[in-house]
Design a protein that fits this description.
Layout: E1 2-6, H1 13-21, E2 30-34, H2 40-48, E3 53-56, H3 63-73, E4 78-81, E5 86-88, H4 92-103, E6 106-114, H5 118-128, E7 148-151, H6 152-158, H7 168-178, E8 183-194, H8 199-221, H9 225-236, H10 239-254, H11 258-263, H12 265-290
Parallel strand pairs: 1-2, 1-4, 2-3, 6-8
Antiparallel strand pairs: 4-7, 5-8, 6-7
Helix pairs in contact: 5-12, 8-12, 9-12, 10-12
Amino acid sequence: SVVMAAYQSERTLFRCLEHLVAQTFTDRELILVDSSPGPACEEFVRGSFPEVVYRRSATQLSAYEARNRGVQLARGQLLAFTDPDAYPHPDWLQGLVDYYRESKACVIGAIACYGDKWIDRGAHLVKFDKWLPSETSRLLTEGPTVNFLIPRDVFDSLGPFSEGSAHADTELSWRLRRAGVQLRFAPAAIVEHHHLLGWTDLIAERFTRGVGYAELESKWDGNSRPSMAWRLLISLLPLRLLSQLRRVRGHARAAGQEGDFFGAFPVVATALYAGLLGECVYFTRSILSRS
């Protein structure tokens, strides 16, 4: 069962569904839960993709609320998640299933960039450097729902997604690892992510996600005041920015995309630092509130 959530996704949804119905793996169903205020997404599906199991919510849902509802409709033994702004390669689903059969692990596929503008390339490296297409399969610590396969019984046991969090895929990944479930990277299962944010929106999104990530990490690990104070200090200096830039460059080099890293360096550096500043805001508020 391929599960997606849509909200005002009409700019990319048609192309996404074209790629999904053209998958070489055919023993599957496509499920879309849409909470858009307008009818555009529904018109796409009803008019051109009648095989899609479509559900419309009268109220706006978070992406993870919609995914949980999609799982409730799913009949498959395996759940594959993607997004309406991603375009899977024709053998994407086959690649996920083959790798699952081989590894019996939860499977994270590769995420390529759709678009050649420097803002596209920079945003992509900031968001998805850990899952760039490469030739190397490996263990992962987390995976995004734009390209994620999990057995239904494992999801029923360790899910669902936390509906109030913007990092529910990260939190689910951490629960899986704590329970001893492996996350493995399948480099041949590729989707292309279409970035729609401009510079200002990207920076605002990274800042907000930085706040949310620090909150999740604090909730998960129970960060003490000294620990948060230390993370606040190294984020402001900015030692962590240098560490993150080194990580992104290393992943870009391994994927043959080091030129993109240098070509979009202002986007990469600014967006990474916006995320760190969001974390700093959370750490500062937490330290002061505990005081």
